Amino acid sequence: MTATIDTLGSAFAELFSQAQEQGLVDRELDSRALAITLMGTLHGLVLHRSLDPDIDISACGDAMRAMYQGIFRTQSNAA
Q1: Is 29 helix (H, G, I), strand (E, B) or coil?
Q2: What is the pLDDT of residues 21-55, one digit of tens each?
Q3: Within a 10 A sphere around the Cβ of 43, how many other Cβ atoms?
Q4: Cβ atoms of residues 47 and 1 within 8 Å
Q5: What are phi and psi of 74, to 5 degrees?
Q6: Where do the structural domains in the chain lie, given as residue ranges?
Q7: What contacts 69, CB < 8 A, 6 or more positions away?
Q8: What pairs with residue 73 in β-bridges?
């Protein structure tokens, strides 16, 4: 399982690096830390869903999208 998490983490980090190169994500943020944060958020959502099957996953997705767009985006792309 660790290998899978490492592989997924590397893939997310690479995607964040590419987004940083394109000016879509703040270059001052560490791409690996962004990947770990995203995976932690997803794992937490899975855990909460396993404890409460009535959680509105769609609403959680909307909240995550708003959070990540507001926090990670560069100022020029935030508008």
Answers
A1: coil
A2: 999 889 999 999 999 999 999 999 999 999 999 99
A3: 11
A4: no
A5: -75, 160
A6: 2-78
A7: 78
A8: 25
Amino acid at 36: I
Q: What pTM, to 2 d.p., does this model score?
A: 0.75
Measured distance CA(45)–CA(25) in Å, rounded: 23
Going by C-alpha positions, the residue among 59, 69, 55 that lies closest to residue 25 is 69
DSSP state of 73: B
Structure tokens at 23: 């000016």
Instruction: Give the CA angle between residues 71, 65, 26 to the nearest 5°.
Output: 30
| CB 13 within 8 Å of CB 34 | yes
Structure tokens at 14: 């690479």
